Amino acid sequence: MIPVTKPFLPKQAEFKSYVSSIWARQWLTNNGPLVNELELKLQQYLDLPHLLFVTNGTIALQLAMQALEIKGEVITTPFSFVATTSSIVWQSCKPVFVDIDQETLNIDPEKIEAAITPNTSAIMATHVFGNPCDIEAIDKIAKKHDLKVIYDAAHCFGTKYKGKSIFAYGDVSTTSFHATKLFHTIEGGAVFTQNPDVLKKMAFMRNFGYSGVDTFSELGTNAKNSEFHAAMGLCNLNYIDQILSKRKELSLHYMERLGKADAQFQVIENDTDFNYAYFPIIFKSEEIMLDVMKQLELVQVYCRRYFYPSLSALPYIDKISMPICDGIAKRIICLPLYHTLTAADQDLVVRIILRTQNYRKKQVVKLADYGTLVNGSNLGLVANGH
Ligand SMILES: Cc1ncc(COP(=O)(O)O)c(C=O)c1O
User: Fold this and answer.
1) Among 54, 56, 58, which residue has the most ligand 1 atoms within 8 Å of its CB, making it the best to mutate?
2) Domain 241-384 maps to which CATH number in 3.30.420.40, 3.30.160.20, 3.90.1150.10, 3.90.79.10?
3) Residues 213, 20: contact at Cβ < 8 Å?
4) Fewer CB atoms inside 10 A, N or C side of the chain?
């Protein structure tokens, strides 16, 4: 069986040694030494002065919004994981969708200004599949209209833009360290900001709003993470360079073999050191994509429709058409990609994709000829495919 992803697991002995140290200290959570060590090591690795390790990438988004005092309308992308939109609604704000660029799959900055109203207070954009948004354009619009910018960088561990960690951009950047992510802490996430006041606020908010033993500075929540999760992060951080280079090798292998496929691939922003976290492929039609998925499942290869459906179709959102996003969401899948995937596994996936596409092409030609003969027209038969 080839799943779409598998979590990276370090050597068990390494994790066990951290677990023994937790047993010895009997300090399980509440800003323990392993949480501190992980935060410091992540700062060093990412070359960033600050970050806060939190429970998950969803609460990271909520903390960011709460700390930046976001109210009213938030301009956002319809092409992301549900948490991007749900956290806006969770904070009692209104998501205002702006369609995406069909090549980068990120929010299209050229369409942002038309969506700004007197109630807009922020832009929440996702660097989709680790591909940086058009940061300069978004920044310019945000400054002009006095808006905050939150980047959902859940997919971005290891991505750099203009030589700096992608987490350095925006008023706040957030990420996820969920088990499916390239770097993970089983469950987990982080918030990043260069603003010391916002950082302080988020640090207090992460811990119920405590600002001292018996004092509270603001409304808080429980967004802390535990020593066990930090231990997994510390183990995995030792492998991060290997993980990133393996992801790149696997992605380039797919790309080389899929060059002949009748499909579209995400265009990566210039000046990016990309992390190759996912391998999305966009087919010509939903029908072809479903056929490819079916053929892959016959040999137990499981891809994922990611992201589908478009977030503007969520049941708690006023329906709005986003033609580019709606079109892409129906035709895109992520191919299997994980550290232990082999080139032979990839070749199987590629063979099936190419074979399904070729078979469909031949069928269409055959049926088209037949249609001309029988009906004097080939239209309906081509549409019915095989
Ligand atoms: C774009 C995006 N934002 C937010 C999240 C939420 O992260 P978490 O699962 O850690 O809550 C995810 C998780 O997959 C995601 O892909």
Assistant:
1) 58
2) 3.90.1150.10
3) no
4) N
